[in-house]
């Protein structure tokens, strides 16, 4: 029998960036907030001098235990979906900070075009640019409406950057801290892109260029360029994460507490409201009910969608009829690129997760698509994230995959290889979606989430076009050999690609095509808010975190207003 706990004003499911932002803002406003986190507590002190590639990057110390919960995957509805048994295409975080602990720190604002993509595409290219099988839609909010929340997130995180990109939206304020150091590799990219008539700028980074104190009084240190960012916690407290910003801010109010090892398995609903959540203590196996005036789903994209599905909140998307919104419009990301092999050596073993330079000349609608068979594009970047020896063994084409020749080529090219990569936009397609699996369950008896996904013609055409642009830039950088990325075939859940999954709980201004409104308030339960990259109506040409952070600040404002006044916020 479940034990019922004391009622709180707000409960968040997950304590990463989103749960932390909601908690900090609501607790500062006087609301009593409880965070439920199924992982363990952790912080900067846990990462001192732990540059252990095997433990963190290979054995996934900070990631979800797939033996307890995973997803099933198939390319199309005719295939049998099978469980993902090892981390592959994307990395599911767990524990305090979530994916905000092990991220690289790329912090972008989606483009004005992204938020009104349906309207702008139709106006410029006509309503049939992609065809009826693509579920393109506006987000129900504009860039200008979201800009103040972007600004707030960047100030909380102390983002290091420069406003030199002619293609992105107008900013109300400069970046809080200057851009990171420009290495010889980045200088080479900058010169090459300028020679080709493009517009390079330093990548906006949550690895801070200098020490910074944010508006809440939280201190973030300066990056040491050690090269252990992605898949690692920062031992210096220099990669902005929830544990050193929003979570301490929430705790200082006295209105916030966290229960760790608490896996939420159901959102409880009566009529047009939710009453709380049911969770299981993953250590003792005890079951609890957490009553709350407001429930906020702030866990990962897939878990937010799964919780709504198992709780029977909202109508499940059906690709056969097109009805329903829950699980609809799942998108991933397309990764065009090119690698160059050089004669000279570079210090590629050093770096930071977001040390890089970018061009947006082929992102969004900054270039003409009239004669192209795709829309949108990608930010094209060179990054120096710190190449580690286990996972990074670049060799030129036609090198044997093992043996003495492979070893020689691997050692020779370890510091003589540079790559340009694109974060490519992904458009929603009627056959790409999430639902519950009818066969497999997790360790708690809850059905696994089932992912049906494959690349589309839009994806393949975008990949081909932008890979050619990457190769053009790399050639201008002067390598002896240029190797473009391979063409897209079918999507495979192995190997790793990006942890940039979006959709499934899409936002909008129409309940027939969205799960939540533009305050991220659920259409079917006025005191339920669903926050995350699942709200994206498509995936853009950037990493999602900056846009997710802005949406979280807007949702927090909506939750506070709802707590005072009740009712729908739109």
TrEMBL record:
Residues 428-552 form the Glucose-methanol-choline oxidoreductase C-terminal domain. InterPro entries: FAD/NAD-bd_sf (IPR036188), GMC_OxRdtase_N (IPR000172), GMC_OxRtase_C (IPR007867). Residues 218-323 form the Glucose-methanol-choline oxidoreductase N-terminal domain. Gene3D superfamilies: FAD/NAD(P)-binding domain. It holds the Pfam family GMC_oxred_N. Keywords: FAD, Flavoprotein, Oxidoreductase. It comes from the Bacteria. Belongs to the GMC oxidoreductase family. This is GMC family oxidoreductase.
